[in-house]
Amino acid sequence: MWNYSNAPRCTVCAHRAIITKQQAQTLVNSSEGRLVAYQCPIELSSWHVWAPEFERADQGGSE
Ligand SMILES: [Zn+2]
């Protein structure tokens, strides 16, 4: 069974998990809007998900 925690990591995207578009969409659908999916700019067959609400706080609001 696929597990997000065991997914390989993308070294160019802050070590986000590398998942398929379908897996990303499944996570987004089950997150009630908290997760956002995006396509890896380097590996176009790879997708990542992230949570803007939580990760924005981690970055201290610097833009
Ligand atoms: Zn990536």
TrEMBL record:
Domain of life according to the entry: Bacteria
Protein name from the UniProt record: Uncharacterized protein
Organism from which the protein derives: Actinopolyspora erythraea
